[in-house]
Amino acid sequence: MSRTVFCEYLKQEAEGLDFQLYPGELGKRIFDNISKRAWGEWMKKQTMLVNEKKLNMMNADHRKLLEQEMVNFLFEGKDVHIEGYIPQATN
């Protein structure tokens, strides 16, 4: 049986993550308050960020930037800005 959470990103009840995917207190906050769907949306944005900004996960500054973007996206409602990227219009 899956667990449900009130997803802070979606602002509604949704299926929660199966396990904590990120370490520490932030990981617990994500596990308790972010849905699978929202995490999937973040993973798409994260991939774009890493590729477009050529982030190196061995670099502590790059990891810190990515973590801040994750918090902004999941908890503060701020979209990820990637220069030159124009999202497709939805009808």
Radius of gyration: 14 Å
Number of helices: 3
Query: Looking at the structure, what is the overall shape?
Result: globular
Poorly predicted parts? none
Q: Could you tell me the strand content as a percent range? A: 5-15%
Helicity, in percent? 40-55%
Counting DSSP E segments of at least 2 residues, the number of strands comes to: 2
Organism: Mannheimia succiniciproducens (strain KCTC 0769BP / MBEL55E)
Function: Could be a mediator in iron transactions between iron acquisition and iron-requiring processes, such as synthesis and/or repair of Fe-S clusters in biosynthetic enzymes.
Keywords: Iron
Protein name: Probable Fe(2+)-trafficking protein
Can you walk me through this structure?
Belongs to the Fe(2+)-trafficking protein family. InterPro entries: Fe_traffick_prot_YggX (IPR007457), Fe_traffick_prot_YggX_sf (IPR036766). By secondary structure, the chain is mainly alpha-helical. It has a single domain, classed as YggX-like (Orthogonal Bundle). It is built from three helices and two strands. It has a two-stranded antiparallel sheet with strand order 1-2. A hairpin with a 4-residue loop joins β1 and β2. α2 packs antiparallel against α3. The mean pLDDT is 92.
List the helices and strands and how they pair.
Layout lengths: L3 E4 L4 E4 L8 H10 L2 H17 L7 H16 L16
Antiparallel strand pairs: 1-2
Task: Describe this structure in a few short sentences.
By secondary structure, the chain is mainly α.
What keywords describe this structure?
globular, 3 helices, mainly alpha, YggX-like, 91 residues, single chain
